[in-house]
Design a protein that fits this description.
By secondary structure, the chain is α/β, with parallel strands linked by helices. It has nine helices and nine strands. Helix 2 runs parallel beside helix 3, helix 7 runs parallel beside helix 9 and helix 8 crosses helix 9.
Length: 292
Amino acid sequence: MASVEEGAEVIIPAPYWVSYPDMVIANDGKPVIVACSENVGFKLTPAALEAAITPWTRWLILNTPSNPTGAAYDRAELLALGEVLLRHPHVMVLSDDIYDQIWFRDEPMTTLAAAVPALRDRILLTNGVSKSYAMTGWRIGYAAGPAGLIAAINKLQSQMSSCPSSISQAAAAHALAAEQTFVGESVKLYRERRDYACARLNAVPHLRCLVPDGAFYLYPSCAGAIGKVTPEGKTIDSDLDFVLYLLDKGGVASVHGAAYGLSPYFRLSTATSMEMIKEACDRIEKACADLR
C-alpha cells in the first residue's frame, strides 16, 4: 500500500485480509482495528467509523466484497460511510475492490468512489485480475487515484521491480478488454456453490453461517463447538483448535478466524468444484457430530 508518515493511524475493519495490519506496520503506520461483528453483517458502521477517527488517522482500508467474509456494502451503506468521511478531510481511503465482479445481489455493484463522487480525490482504488478472471498466478493488479499519489506509487514500483511482467500485462489487458461472458458464468457458479454450502453448514451442529453478498468465501461461526470435546478427549478451546480438528479428523483445510482479527469463526473457500464442496460438507458434518 502507499506509504504513510510514521505513527499515522490506519483504520482496518475486522475481519480483514491478513496482510493489511502488517502492510501498515511495514510502512511505519499504526493499525487501528475496528471489530465488525456478525450482527452488523461483518461490516463497518458509520458510528464505528466515526468513533475510530482521530486527528492522527490518515487512511481507511475498505475491502468490498470482503475476504474473508464475502460481506459487501450496498450504495446506501457506502453513502452513510461517505457522510462520515466528508466530515474528516484528512482521511484517505484505500478501496480494495479485487472481488467487485463476484457479486450476488440483484442491484448493481458500486464502489465508494462511484457512490460518493466528492471523495474521489481522497480514494485510492485498487483492483486486479486474479479473482474475477481466475488469473492468480499472473500476479498483476492496478490502481487509480489522485495524480500525485499514483506518481509516488510509480516511483516506488520502478525502484522495486521496474514493472509488472510484460506477459502478465498483455494477458491482463486481454482479460479486461475481451468479451465478459466468462465472468457472468463464473458468478453464477459461485452463487450456486455459496447457496449449497451455506445451507449445508447451517444444518450442521455447532455451526452458523451468514450468507455472503460476494467473493467466494464463507465465514461460519464455530462458537457452538467451543468447549466441546473431541473423540480423542481434547477440548476445543478456540477457533484454531477447531480448524486443526477439522484438518485432523476430516481432512478439511480452513483458516481460523483469529488470523483475520475476529473469533470464533473460520474461513472456507468455495472456489472449487461442487463435488469437492459436497465432500467437504459431509466431512465437516461428520466431524461436528462426533463432538461431545
